Structure formats: structure tokens, C-alpha cells
Automatic annotation (TrEMBL):
Residues 87-115 form the F-box domain. The lineage of its organism: Eukaryota, Fungi, Dikarya, Basidiomycota, Agaricomycotina. Coiled coil: none annotated. This is F-box domain-containing protein. SUPFAM superfamilies: F-box domain (SSF81383). InterPro entries: F-box-like_dom_sf, F-box_dom.
């Protein structure tokens, strides 16, 4: 079918839609004629009838909206067919209709830019690869991202997800967190492990003890109603609270 498709694409490249429709009508007329005199058909006519059928089917396919509408119109139609609550299923459904739809969907970034919630709790490697592939489909556009991590998340998983950060337009992380107890120490050899509390808008109570040398911890105190902060080095507390 692909060889016939390429052949007919090239054949009608300079023809109008009306010309193609007229050719289809003529071809179908020939097929009907072959069917009426099937008992009298010769070898040459039989060969022609077997060639015309696939060509007609291919030409009808080439007259479908995926080929006749502009990319802008198709993109708008696809976007309108995608629901906000089930946009992931809708986009996947569109991309699985046929190879033409899949090719168009994968080359249309705006179809992949709806908010993405990445549930990293007990996340498998296949899940991470799926999240990454989805976000990269949106390139060069960006998208809102929500992360749902827990204590089971591995460094490998986190590193994989963070590779897509340039494609994030906004980030929601622990947005329901209200109380946090950090009694442990932080490793100053791993700057990426330093906590930032700018992405926890509901945080009200914080208990934190630090024994290390000064660390670049981002702390917004305006939202806190209760803060317990312990350290052996007063300058650390002053630097963080400054």
C-alpha cells in the first residue's frame, strides 16, 4: 500500500481535487464494467482491474482531510477534540488512528503541551521513559508540570526527569505540604540535594536542624506561622533567614 501511495502522490501532485475525483469516477466505471462482463474478461483486462482497485482506494485516501486541509486547520481540529481532563488518552488515541495521523500528531508540538502530572511514587523505568518522551514531543514549546515524589524515588529516576526541565513552563511540587520536619543533616558535597521551599506554598510549620557549614538553602518565611531552626553556627541561621 505504501508503494502505491507514493506513486499516486507523485501522480496527482499537480492535479486539482476535481481532476482526482474525475479520475476516481472513471476508474470505478472501468471496475464496474469488468465486473459486468467477468465471464468474458481476458488476461489483460483482468490485470488492469486488479491494478485499478488499489489505485482508486489510494486516491480516495489522498482526498481525505489529513491531506487536503492545511496543517493549521488540522491542528486546530485535533486540539478541539482533546479534553482537559483526559488529554493524555485523547492525544494517544489520535496518534494511533493510522500512520498519517500519528506522523501529524508527533510533528505538532502544541498537542503535547497540556499540564503533565508525573507520579514518581514507585515509578518504573518505563514510566520515566514515557514521561520524558511525552515532554520532548512538545519541543520547542513548554508545558506545566506537577511532580508527585515520595521517599522511594531513586536518584536515577530524578536525574532522568530533571533532564526535561528546560521544557517546563511551570512546576508544582508538594503544593499541599503544610508541616515539615527535617532533623537530619545535608550533604554539602551534593548541591542539588539542598532544599528549596519556594515550591511549597501551603507550608506553615517547619522544623530544621543544620550542623554543616553555610548552605544555599532557599527559605521563604512570609508564609510560615511556626519555625524551629537549630544550628551550632549562628551565621548559618542569619544567612538563611536574611
Amino acid at each position: 500500500m505504501s508503494a502505491v501511495l507514493l506513486e499516486q502522490k507523485e501522480r496527482i501532485r499537480k492535479n486539482s481535487k476535481a481532476d482526482v475525483e474525475r479520475f476516481i469516477e472513471e476508474s470505478e466505471s472501468k471496475i464496474s464494467s469488468f465486473e459486468r462482463k467477468q465471464s468474458q474478461i481476458n488476461v489483460v483486462e483482468l490485470r488492469d482491474s486488479r491494478r485499478i482497485g488499489p489505485r482508486v482506494a489510494t486516491l480516495r485516501h489522498l482526498l481525505s482531510p489529513i491531506y487536503t486541509l492545511s496543517a493549521e486547520s488540522l491542528s486546530e481540529i485535533f486540539e478541539l477534540s482533546i479534553g482537559n481532563q483526559k488529554h493524555i488518552k485523547d492525544v494517544l488515541r489520535i496518534s494511533q488512528v493510522c500512520s498519517d495521523w500519528r506522523q501529524f500528531a508527533q510533528s505538532t508540538p502544541q498537542l503535547w503541551t497540556r499540564p503533565m502530572e508525573m507520579d514518581l511514587r514507585k515509578c518504573r523505568s518505563n514510566d520515566v521513559e514515557g514521561y520524558i518522551a511525552w515532554i520532548l514531543r512538545a519541543a520547542p514549546l513548554t508545558m506545566p508540570v506537577s511532580l508527585l515524589p515520595d521517599a522511594s524515588i531513586t536518584r536515577h529516576t530524578l536525574d532522568g526527569i530533571l533532564k526535561t526541565a528546560p521544557r517546563w513552563r511551570s512546576l508544582q511540587l508538594l503544593d499541599n505540604l503544610k508541616e515539615l520536619d527535617l532533623a537530619g543533616d545535608f550533604n554539602e558535597d551534593e548541591p542539588t540535594a539542598f532544599p528549596s521551599f519556594s515550591a511549597v506554598p501551603r507550608l506553615r510549620k517547619l522544623y530544621m536542624i543544620i550542623y554543616s557549614t553555610p548552605l544555599p538553602i532557599i527559605l521563604s518565611c512570609t508564609q510560615l506561622t511556626n519555625l524551629t531552626f537549630g544550628t551550632h553556627f549562628p551565621n548559618i541561621a542569619f544567612n538563611i533567614l536574611a
